[in-house]
Structure formats: structure tokens, C-alpha cells
Amino acid sequence: MTGAWTASEVPVIGAPMAGGATKPALVAAVASAGGLGFLAGGYKTPEALGAEMAELGGAGVPFGVNLFVPGPSTLTEAEFRRYAEELADEGAPYGLELAGAPMVVDDDHWQGKIDLLLAHPVPFVSFTFGLPGADVVSALAAPGMQVLATVTTLGEARAAVELGVHGLIAQGTEAGGHSGTHTPEQPEGKPLRELVQQVVAETSLPVIAAGGVSESSQVRELLASGAAAVAVGTVLLRTDESGASAVHKEAIATAGSDATVITRAFTGRPARGLRNGFIERHEAGAPNGYPAIHHLTRPLRAAAAAAGQPDQVHLWAGTGYGRARTGPAADVITALAADL
Fold it and tell me: CA 267, CA 287: separation in Å to the nearest integer?
């Protein structure tokens, strides 16, 4: 990927939404409209990710893969235990004993997924939550894979360029779900258009713009600002091929205006979602502690979604959630790429 975006017929990318929203069917639907979809490798075992890769590869669908970069945990056992006890009453109705939950810190099967990609190369591999080591970048590049890094500030972009990646994903503060910030304890971030302009002016690498995009006019503006392509996620959450839960889809459909906030309450890492009671009750006490807090609240979120209780579900959504529509995902991509 040099100079211009040439990976797909139209410069619109289906963002990798971890946790179930991005299924192979959604990636395939994006590709059918001329875009490029990314599988979400986060939270999956190498075996589960490999099965999805094989499904798309067997069908001849072009795609990329996204991975979470593991980082050091600064959360203390005392901080974790305090928050677990704070959440005890939330889990009680579902039979969950959150106060005594173990503190789990893992690397999300990091090496296993790198090994999987080396054994089964794909055109593009993107990283979020930080930068992989130089050895990982060079190993993935050897068989021809293009490595993309998610950045939220100009400083992060400079570090990624120095590392030798092939492209940058500039994520603005409008983005739904987890921020890709490299410093979750003190996230900086910028509005998308400002970030894109800064990064484009600083580097000759292709830049993919991501964050709150939901209309074709935004796509055109970002491309005019120098972006090589635009990534979208929230606007695909209600489509036929989305794997988002029924609770999540309904919450997006019925939310009022200006309903999103950035919170650590569910996972210990800043993420944008629809405001609900859980956030209001616990944001003030939520520590910086990914992935331990993610593992702590995961059974609660699953139980609440199964029970149809949006008040305790992480309803990730970007600022463009009001324009998310039902129907085929291919139609959404086609509409976003109109008049380019």
C-alpha cells in the first residue's frame, strides 16, 4: 500500500469491531460492495480467528485482520478488589459473585495470533492499543503483508512511522468502542478531521480516517483532507450481517441525540458508547485497568444482554450512531461511496 489506497474498488473500510459485531458475513458484505473488511482478532483464540480467516479465504473474499497489542498493566490488586466489590450488587441478580472474581491479566493470545498470520498471510494486518515490536513488523512484512498502526495523536503517528509500518489508521475522538490510544491512563486524542490533516501533513504514508463517519459527505471531506480511505463501524451495527446483540441494535435505534460518552467503567480502558445506568453509577470509581476490568465485567455484560437489560451492557457507538440503519451492509457501503 504505497501512495494511494488500492486495496479495494472504493476507499471505504469495514472497521474490525471485536466482541462479536464483526462476523465473516459482515466482512464479506463490505467486500461485495467494493470495500475492504477487517476481521476482529481481539478476544478470540487463534483457533477461532483461524476458522474465520479460512471461511473468508475459502470464499475468495479479500480481508484484513486486526489485533490488540498487549500492554503493561498498572492496576493493583487492591484497586481491582475495590472495584469488584463496588460492582457486587450489579452481578447479584444474575447469580454472579463479582466481589470475589479473580484478577485476570492476559495478552489475548498474542503470540499465537502472530504465528497464525505468519502461517497464513493476509494482505493487511492492523494493530490497535499500541505498537507491536519492530521484529513483529518485519516478520509480517517478509511474506508481503502490509502492517497498519492505529494512532490517535501526532506523536503516536511519528512513533509508528519510525517503527516502519506501511500505513496509519487515524482514529478521532468520535470513534465508537475502545480508543486506540497508546496511553490509556492519559488519553489525548483529537477530532478526526484535525487529526487526519496533521498526520497527512507529517507523513507520506497512506492514512485511513476512522471515527464517527456515517455520511458520504464526510467521506468526501476526509478524502479531500488527504485520507487514502475511510473506515466505518457504528453505521454497520444494525445491518443484516452485523453480529451485534439485539439489545445493542435496539439501543442504537432508540437513543436520543448526543447520547454517547467516553467511559472506563466496563473495561478499564477508555471507550465511547451510549450512556446508561452502569456508566452513571460506576464511571467515577472505574480504574485504568484493561484487561482485568474487561474480564471482571464480561460475565455481567453477557448475562444482561441475554436478559435484554441494556442498562448493564457496553453499548459501544460512535458519534454517528443516529444514522445507523437496518438492511444489507453492502447498501451502506455503496451509499457512503456515492459520488466519489
Answer: 9
Number of residues assigned to the chain: 340
User: Does residue 86 belong to any structural domain of this protein?
Assistant: no
The backbone region for 266, taken as left when phi is positive above 0, alpha when psi lies in -120 to 50, beta otherwise, is alpha
As separate numbers, helices (DSSP H) first and strands (DSSP E) second, the chain gives 13, 11
CATH of residue 194's domain is: 3.20.20.70
Q: Which residue has the cell 500505513?
A: 167
Containing domain of residue 56, as a range? 1-71+107-238
Q: Is residue 99 part of a domain?
A: no
Residue 117 lies in a domain: yes
The pTM is what? 0.96
* The total number of structural domains that make up the chain: 1
Would you tell me how many other CB atoms lie within 10 Å of the CB of residue 148? 25
How many CA atoms lie within 13 Å of 177's alpha carbon, on the beta-carbon side?
23
Q: How many other CB atoms are there within 10 angstroms of residue 140's CB atom?
A: 23
pLDDT score at 198: 97
The residues, ordered by sequence, that sit 6+ positions from 331 with a Cβ below 8 Å of its Cβ are 33
> What is 237-272 written as a DSSP string?
TTSTT----HHHHHHHHH--TT-EEEE-TTTSS-EE
Predicted confidence at residue 7, as pLDDT, reads 63
Please give the Cα distance from 21 to 316 (Å, whole number): 10
Separation of alpha carbons 260 and 244, rounded Å: 17
Contact indicator for 268, 289 with CB cutoff of 8 Å:
yes
| 114 located within any domain | yes
- Mean pLDDT for each consecutive 10-residue tract of the chain (340 residues)? 58 97 98 97 98 97 97 94 98 97 97 98 98 98 97 98 98 98 95 98 97 97 97 98 98 94 98 98 98 98 97 98 97 94
3-state DSSP assignment of residue 122 = coil
